[in-house]
Amino acid sequence: MPEITYREALNQALSEEMERDDQIFLMGEEVAVYHGAYKVSQGLLEQFGDKRVIDSPITEAGFVGLGIGAAHVGMRPVIEVMTFNFAILALDQIINNLAKMRSMSGGQYTMPIVIRGPGGAGGSLGAQHSQSLEQQYVHIPGIKVVMPSTPYDAKGLLKTAIRDNDPVIFIESEKLYNTKGEVPTGEYLLPYTADVKKEGADVTIIAWSRMVTACALPAAEILEAEEGISCEVVDPRSLSPLDFDTLIKSIKKTNRCVIVEEAWPKASVGAWIAAELSLRAFDYLDAPIVRINQCDVPLPYAFNLEELSLPKPSDVVEAVKKVCYKS
Amino acid sequence: MASSAKSSAKSTAKNVKAEEPKTETSSSCSTPIVPKYDAATYNGEKYRNIAKKLLKKDDIKKLYRDMLLCRRFEERCAQMYQMRKIQGFCHLYIGQEAVAVGTIAALQPKDLIFQTYRDHAHALLKGISARECFAELFGKATGCSKGKGGSMHFFKAETGMMGGNGIVGGHVPMATGAAFASRYNDKKQVSVCYMGEAAVNQGVFHESLNMASLWKLPCVYITENNLYGMGTAVERASAEDQLYKRTKDAYRIPGIRCDGMDVLEMYGIMYEAAERARNGEGPTFLEAITYRYRGHSMSDPATTYRNKDEVSVWQRRDPMARLQADYPELLTEALINAMDEECKAEVQDAIKFAEESPFPDASELWTDIYLDYPGYPGPGQKG
Question: Is the pTM of this model over 0.90?
Fold first, then answer.
């Protein structure tokens, strides 16, 4: 299987899907002539022309809303936000229009749109460009939220999201774009199910997006080598819908759980997962669930402070030892 | 406009400037009864002539009947609201009927309209029956949105009634997106975006018009300037209160003011704007000066920010009386009485239908959220 980057995997998904269905168009800031702020749309303008690959003005509420309007009448837009920090400007369009149109109309409309771009910290980008805001979308009924952690997942899930008739918020990661992984050459689609990234016996570590490869898997290696603790790393991949069955199955095996989340701790997706698991897997838990988050502060620029704030493998190691009563 | 056209005794509201400046002094409301509008660019007679040329006798009768149906429908809405058959927010359109009736009559059936929460009349005119509308207001399963939308969210996909939207200005990008889709697929389908005058101060209004002009989208934006955004007079909210002036220099979109109390003028102006859109000439911005006789919503008695004299000035320009004055021999008293009986009966039948219809089944709480969501709604949920 060829090894390609996360960025190339997303690019292949876009290219293949746009080739398949001419009702798909890609719109966003710098997606066409500039080839994408993060080069995810490299070559697409040349392949599909400026009718289907469209540079928008810097006007997030406007072009996200325009995409929603196009989906409202049956098209299948892919709207790129340069980062999800900027999608805050479009939240009214997403929450009040996109998430409500099907329900408010008594099911008369489907809204087949994908809104995609990177979320989370990119490295020394300062407080306004480093936020993990997935919980804003997971909270809202009527939209789905997908966050792939590997090139293989990125391609298969983006293709699924584009073919989905429900609206999908597809959150990538700036720090993952250059990461490599095996991706099959042929066509494949992935379901919105959790994926066990590493099997283990003693502790379940739940992590998604960048936290899988940047924190959970490295921590699992350290724990196995240094502490003899075998960790199972489970990536939900989709946060809404969220495949609790796979998470619970893992906890039934390990009886311990740590949740690693890049976002802030208050009212977060991790908090919701912990609450659900406490209720639904209480009898299988031998220790309280421990959550790892970034510190509850706007992310500072200073390199040392940023590092101090974001979750890192050593945080996960400590948390795992804690649920194993070894700290 | 030609001054000779203004001299007609019938044209009570043709030129708003002609009727000012009667300023109310006996009330705490210091707002002039009629805003000071510059008449220099106003050309109502041109659009009235387009309408007169295109409309046949039956069309004129239908315009009158449509306005009457909207009026009778909403009068009963107010009554049903007071009886608590309708709850929540309920915004009446009474007084503004010429705008919706004239403009929608000038569209083709395939065209789409996006309206605000003041959407009863637009829905009735864009293919939703009085029965489906009243059932929706009563929260019944037979309503146009299955009882899930309510007064502010009337939809009918098959006739192009795209809502019913509750956030001021929030639907403007969606209307723009529908126009984008029309151009993309070369459908010659016009997207019409109605909004109140307060919406033109929202960011998305400007974002949308910029893109619509950039890409020459087939969209007609029309603000129904009823002079108040809730209780805030337009000149207290808009630094440039002559709204039609705001789009030409900023976005190269022609802005045209028109008399929203004149159904013929509204027909003519929409006919021309829709043709421009259909021919690929891009968007138009229309500012229809109109007036709502009732409060902002059923909970607003409209006593603090305007006075009764002001309301009665505008009621003397009533769009139905205006059309009758234009066609006195066609719209006879006998004909109007007969149409009135028909409209009242249609509304009465709709109320009876709504009354007898069932509320949505409890299972409906969980439908129409997603098409396909494994495990939805998840364990532990009520209902």
Answer: yes
Residues of B in contact with A164 (CB under 8 A): 372
Nearest chain A residue (CA) to B376: A241
Q: Is A238 on the interface with B (CB under 8 A)?
A: no
Of B162, B176, B374, the CB nearest to A241: B374
Which tokens in the block code for residue A246? Answer: 């796979």
Residues in chain B, total: 383
* Burial category of B358 from C-beta neighbours within 10 Å (exposed 0-12, middle 13-18, buried 19 and up): exposed
Low-confidence ranges of chain B (pLDDT < 70): 1-41, 383
Largest CA distance in chain B: 73
Q: DSSP letter at A263? A: S
CA B210 to centroid of chain Cα atoms: 23
Task: Write the pLDDT tens digit of every residue in B286-339.
Answer: 999 999 999 999 999 999 999 899 999 899 999 999 999 999 999 999 999 999
Tell me the CB-side half-sphere exposure of residue B275, using CA atoms within 13 A: 8
Residue A156 identity: G
The tokens 């997030």 sit on which residue?
A: A60
State both tokens at A240: 């809404």
What is the arithmetic mean of pLDDT over A23-37? 97
Residue with tokens 């800031």: A29
The pLDDT, as a whole number, for residue B181 is 98
Give dist(CA B67, CA A33) in Å, integer.
51
Contacts of B338 (CB under 8 A, 6+ apart): none
Asked whether B101 and B121 are in contact (CB, 8 A), the reply is: yes
Closest chain B C-alpha to A177 CA, distance in angstroms: 28
Q: Are B311 and B317 in contact (CB under 8 A)?
A: no
Joined tokens for residue B374: 């494994």
> Given pLDDT bands bounded at 50, 70 and 90, which one contains residue A297?
very high
